[in-house]
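Collaboration report, partner site 2.

Our partner group contributed sequences for two proteins of shared interest, and the home lab folded both. The records are reproduced in the order in which they were received, starting with the first partner submission.
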Amino acid sequence: MERHGDRGGVALGLACGVMWWTVGALWIMPANMGTRVFECNDVTSSSLGTHLVFGLPPGLAFGSVARAMSKQGAGRAG
């Protein structure tokens, strides 16, 4: 069974988690609360871990769907 596509899905999921953490936890939420933006502390550090954990399932799902679609397309072409 081919598992190389999972690395791309994991990387994509982690990148999305970091992106949403940066936009949401470091920028939008502090700006709405009237505190300093882009400031790392204990709360934002634990929030990063949560964003990474919750970014993995969508990334893995995307990798699985992309792999299945490429196999389906390869089966039709050949």
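Second partner submission, folded after the first:
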Amino acid sequence: MELSKLTSKGQITIPKKIRQALQVEEGDRVAFIEEDGFVIMAKADLQQLHDLQDILSDEKFKSLIQKANHHL
């Protein structure tokens, strides 16, 4: 788990480990997708977003989100 602090202007610093995992650099765009109270962040390029759409529509993923919600 990585943590970041929200500034008064609504900005956060994405931890280095997460930036590396997403392969994002200065100037890249990121997408935030909300799904049942969880937020997923992804690099905003067409292939990444297409892959993410497939994951979000997968029944196993939806089941995992529901289980996580019950444990909060």
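Feedback sent to the partner group on the second submission included the following. The first strand starts at residue 30 and ends at 35. The mean pLDDT is 83.
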